[in-house]
Amino acid sequence: MPYDFDKTHEKILESAMNNFSQVGFRDASIRNICKDAGVTNGAFYAHFKSKDELFSALVEGCLNQFNDLYNGFTDIKIQSAEDVINMFKMSYTSVETLIHYVYENKAIFMLILKNSGGSSYENYVNDLIEEESKNTMIFMESCRAYMKKPENISERIARIGSALVINSMFEAFVAGESEEDNIKDTRLSSDYCIAGYREILGL
């Protein structure tokens, strides 16, 4: 029987998804993945250079689409303090789109959030928080002219706000909350952040 590269590839991916989901990245072995897929270790290395590359093949496409959604929100022209607040509101409202995407791709995000320890994705949430913090700082710095208390702009404040909303979204998901309840709770976290920014920055 001729070797079917694509079929073997899919078998390895399917086996890897099962193994990673059951025991996590760190404890999953290439040997067991290959055994469950019905392929040899040699066949594995014809498809993937490492276990980490295999994990990446499972999650990268989904995360790329998530990042496209995350980076695709439209800015508004800032001409007043209220515009600054409206931009924060728009940003946080857009999180609902991200939550919906996470629930649509539940298996992949569970893999990343619960079973990625030891892989290059184990710090994904923290990396996302750092990215959001950086973007928040850039935004706040650009809006100094509309703040009564611009001296309160700080990386720490930006990170606290970013962490609150992002952790709210992912922790509720991992805990098994429904999408509707997750959106509700994350909206409350967002409102809390907006009220804080309004007070701290004098908006």
Can you characterise this structure?
The protein has 203 residues and is an all-alpha fold. Helix 5 runs parallel beside helix 8 and helix 8 runs antiparallel to helix 9. The radius of gyration is 21 Å and the shape is elongated. The termini are far apart.
Question: So how many helices?
Answer: 9
Helix-and-strand structural type: mainly alpha
**What number is the mean pLDDT?**
93
Please give the share of residues in helix: over 70%
Rg, Cα atoms, Å: 21 Å
Low-confidence stretches: none
Ends distance? 71 Å
Main attributes?
203 residues, mainly alpha, 9 helices
In short:
This protein is mainly alpha-helical and 203 residues long. The protein has nine helices and no strands. The mean pLDDT is 93.
List the helices and strands and how they pair.
Layout: H1 5-27, H2 30-37, H3 41-44, H4 51-71, H5 81-104, H6 106-115, H7 124-142, H8 155-174, H9 179-201
Helix pairs in contact: 1-2, 1-4, 1-6, 5-8, 5-9, 7-8, 8-9
